[in-house]
Design goal:
single chain; alpha/beta; 2 domains; binds magnesium ion
Length: 318
């Protein structure tokens, strides 16, 4: 038997918060009754700077429920940081932590399987979605593109894994030693190399509210994921530059040859095409390199990854 903490990141989830919280509470009580987890197990909600009624709903719930804790950020720090804050808080009290989205799209019945994998000695248990049927065409296509690109770049990311996962206290202690600002947990955790297992779970459509992952947030997560795990894009830029230099040598020889043998070269089209092509390639390359320099800039600042405004714990406010 273990003390289990559930970590739930919440951002503008007023439509579903009450219902989700109740469902999770019932699930936890059921697990306690079935003697799968200990009585002191808790649910940690992390309010990621919601601008709607999420905080009010959660704070009134937490004041009445001993099993709930509410960590509230000063502003929106993003899904990954919300999960991290919840896990870092829980590692002092819990034997294991499971992170799960507030919209409960992820099937909570998988929690039992997570626990049995933990009992068998796994320190990390990854939740992997069985399919993407509940996703729209765009989300499906972008997810496939992202995981394909990650594979191409040699990053060890489990395809279709979600941030629905169990981590033992040992794994959380190790995670706490990673101080990177550029956080992509799905890529980072497999790098730690702990004994792990996979649990497949069903995904339901959202019951209320809209997805909080805007296109901008999705692109940011994808770029963070790639740049935090691989420097292959920079290497690609180097090879691209090298290839272009070789091509330039060929062009110089070719131009001198035609100049000597045929006089002035008409070549307007080639000039225009190559100007745009080379210009585009240079800008793209600079952008890729700039992306890494920008990341280094933020890493060197060592700013806090999130700022906690308040914690409501077992009816008390600190
Ligand atoms: N979330 C968050 N901060 C954000 C965006 C999302 O804490 O800036 C939470 C959100 O409340 C939810 C989870 O992260 O619990 C996953 O978000 P969502 O369900 O909107 O993403 P999707 O399932 O559409 O990928
Ligand atoms: Mg969701």
């Amino acid at each position: 038997m273990l003390t289990l903490y559930l970590v739930v990141p919440c951002y503008n989830e007023e439509e579903i918060m009450e219902c989700s919280a109740r469902t999770l509470l019932n699930k936890m009580n059921e697990l306690v009754e079935n003697r799968l987890i200990l009585e002191d197990s808790k649910i940690v909600f992390v309010n990621d700077g919601s601008k709607d009624k999420t905080f009010e709903i959660l704070s009134s719930l937490c004041r009445n429920e001993d099993r709930c804790v509410l960590i509230s950020f000063t502003k929106n720090f993003g899904h990954q940081n919300a999960i991290l804050a919840g896990m870092m808080f829980s590692r002092e009290f819990a034997d294991a932590v499971i992170t799960i989205d507030a919209d409960l799209q992820q099937d909570i019945h998988a929690i039992g399987e997570f626990l049995s994998a933990y009992e068998k000695g796994c320190d990390v248990v990854y939740g992997v979605r069985k399919d993407r049927d509940s996703d729209g065409l765009f989300k499906k296509a972008s997810a496939n593109l992202f995981y394909g690109l990650m594979r191409l770049l040699g990053c060890d990311v489990l395809a279709n894994s979600a941030d629905y996962r169990l981590m033992s206290r040992k794994a959380l202690e190790t995670l706490s030693e990673y101080s990177e600002a550029n956080l992509f947990l799905r890529g980072l955790i497999p790098l730690m190399g702990f004994r792990s297992d996979i649990v497949y779970f069903d995904v339901k459509p959202r019951e209320g509210g809209k997805s909080k992952y805007s296109l901008k947030k999705m692109i940011t997560l994808a770029i963070d994921g790639i740049t935090s795990l691989s420097i292959k894009p920079i290497r690609f830029v180097t090879f691209l530059g090298l290839g272009m230099c070789l091509f330039a040598v060929f062009m110089i020889i070719f131009s001198i040859y035609t100049w000597v043998h045929e006089g002035a070269v008409p070549g307007y089209t080639t000039t225009v095409i190559s100007t745009w092509l080379v210009g585009g390639a240079i800008l793209l390359s600079e952008g890729i390199i700039g992306e890494y320099i920008g990341k280094m800039y933020f890493e060197t600042k060592k700013r806090p990854r999130y700022i906690i405004d308040s914690v409501i714990y077992g009816g008390k406010k600190t």
